[in-house]
Amino acid sequence: MVSPTSTTSGGFDQPRPHEAEGMSYYPVLSAPGCKGWVGLSNFSPNNWEIRRRQSLLINVTWASNGMWITKNLGVLAPGACKTITASDVADIVPADVLPLLSLTLTPPVAQSEVLPRLDTAQTSIPAWRATLGLSSSSAQTSYQGELDAFPLQASLLTFGPFLQFGEGIKNHLILLNVENSSASRSAELEIYDAAGLKLRGRFPVSSNAANSIPLERLGFASGDLPLFICRGMAAIPLYFSSAMDGAYLSLEHTHPPASLVVHGRRWQAQKLLKNRWFAKASS
Amino acid sequence: MIAQKLQRIRRAVWSWRQPLTHLPTLENAPISDLFVWRSSHEWQTFFELIDIPSLFEDDTLPRHVSLVFFDSSGRRLFKRNVDLQANRRQTLDISSMVGRSYGEKGTFAAFHSKTPSAITHLGSFLAERGYASYCYRDAPLRAYVHGNLDAVAQGPDGGLQLLGGTSFLRRQYSLQHELLPGVVYEFGLVNPTSSVQRITFKLISVPSGRIISAEVENVPSGGIRLVVVPVDESSSVRLVIESHLVMARPLVFRIQNFKLDVFHG
C-alpha cells in the first residue's frame, strides 16, 4: 500500500497493501455464535484480465510456533465453486488460530517463516475474491473479499457507523489482520466517540487473527460516531451484528480514510486525516 | 520481448481511454455513488450520513448534504437538503423520504455542500461512498452494504455529470459467488454512464458450464435494473453480466427463509 493504512476487501475499493503478485488469502472468519466459511470460485471475475482456465489447488495456511504452515485441501476444477467451512479445517488448523485459504497453480511452500507468496491468478478490476461468510443455525451473512499481508508499520483509523440498537441486538467489531511474519504480536485498539473524543475503551489486539471486540458495554448511542484507532497495527474493520440469538445477522466493513476522496493525491489525504485524528486523540 | 509487447497491446484494447470513472470537469465538484433505494411494504432503505468535511477540518460553519433522488429510469425526482452534524452519525430513513409514489426502487446521491481546502489542494475530490442498509420484512436487524463507485458529480448550479466509463468491447463481469437452489437472489445494477447500456444477465450452470438463461435489459443512463433470480435448478449456478460497462459490479440481495444478506459483487 502506498502509505501505511487500513484496507478493506474488494480490490477495487482501494489498492492492495502491497503490489506483490497474487498474494490474496481468504480468511475463515469467526464471530460469537457463528461459524465461518469461505466460498471459493475458480473462474475469473472478468473475461479480459485472465483467460486461461486451469485447475487450482485449494490450500489452508496458518501460523504455528513461529512458522506459517500450509496444507493442501484438494483441487478446484475450472469453472467450479467450493465452500470450505471452519469445520472442514477444524482437524487441521488448531482452535483459535486464523485459517487462511488460498487458490494456487503450484503448491505453496509447506513451512515458512514468512507468509508464502502465492503462485496464483490475479486480477485488478476487480480483485479475484471469495465470499467470506458467517453462519448461525438459521441465518448467514457475507461479503466479497480477500486479505493481503499488512506492513508492520501500518496503522488503522476508521469511523464505524454500523452499530445497531434494539432488544437482543449484539454488535462486535472484528479486526482482521495478517502480516508476513508468523510471529504473533500485540497492539492496542482505542475506541472513541468522535464527537468530543471521549475514550470508550482500549482493547489488546493480535496480529494474524480475527480479533472480536464486543461493543455493547461502551455506552454508544444511536447518534454517536465510533472512532477506531490502532496506532501499531493495520486491520480490516468488520462490523458484525446479530439479533434474536443469531436468527438475523449483518456483516460489513468500513472504508479506510482514503476512500473519502478520489483522484489526485488521495493517499496524502489519508495521511493528513490520520495525523489529524491521531494527534486529536492523544491530546 | 515480443510476447510482452503483444500482451501490452492486448491489455491496451481493454484499458486505453477506458477509465472506470472519469474525472469531473469541474474542480471542487462533490462526487457520490448512486446508492440503491428500495421502498415497499417489504423493503426499507436507510443511509448512514456522516459529516465528511468535519473529519478534515474544524470549523463552525453550517454544512449540509444534498440528497438527490432518481427513479429506476434515472429521472431526477427531487432534492432534499439535510443539515450535517460534525462528528456525529445520522441514520436517514430513505424509504420515508422517497415514499411510495415513485415506484419500488431507484437511486440516490449524496453531495456534500463543502469540500475542505485540504482535499482541493491535493487535486482530489470529496467522495460519498458511504453505507446503506436495508430492512426486509420488518426484520429486527438491518443488513449493511458499502458504496463502491464514484458515479456522479454535482456542479455549482446543481447540474449532474455521470462519471462511469465505458468499454470499446463488450466485457463480462462474473460474480464470484455460487448461487444455490432454494435461495432468491436479486441483482441491482446501476448504469453510471451517460448513455443507455444494453446489459445481458446470464445464468450459467456451475457443474456443466452451460448457459441456463440470458436476460437482456436496456438500462437508461443513471438508471437501475433489479433482476430477480430464484434459483430453481437442482444444482448451483453463477451469474455473468455482459455489457459495455468497465465493471458491471452488481449489488446482491440474497434472501433465504425470508432473511436478507446484502453485499456488493
Notable characteristics:
heterodimer, A: 283 residues, mainly beta, five-stranded antiparallel β-sheet, four-stranded antiparallel β-sheet, 18 strands, disordered N terminus, B: 265 residues, Hypothetical Protein Tm1070, Chain: A, 2 domains, four-stranded mixed β-sheet, 20 strands, globular
The first-to-last residue Cα distance of chain B is 36 Å
Shape of chain B: globular
Please tell me what the overall shape of chain A is: globular
Tell me the structural class of chain B: mainly beta
Computed Rg of chain B = 20 Å
Task: Kindly state the percentage of residues in helix of chain A.
Answer: under 10%
- Give the ordered list of helices and strands of chain A: EEEEEHEEEEEEEEEEEEEH
Class computed from helices, strands and strand pairing of chain A:
mainly beta
Give the strand line-up of the largest sheet of chain A.
1-6-3-4-7
Q: Whole-Å distance between the termini of chain A?
A: 28 Å
Bin the strand percentage of chain B: over 45%
- Note the total helix count of chain B: 4
Oligomer: heterodimer
Mean of the pLDDT scores of chain B?
A: 95
The number of domains of chain B:
2
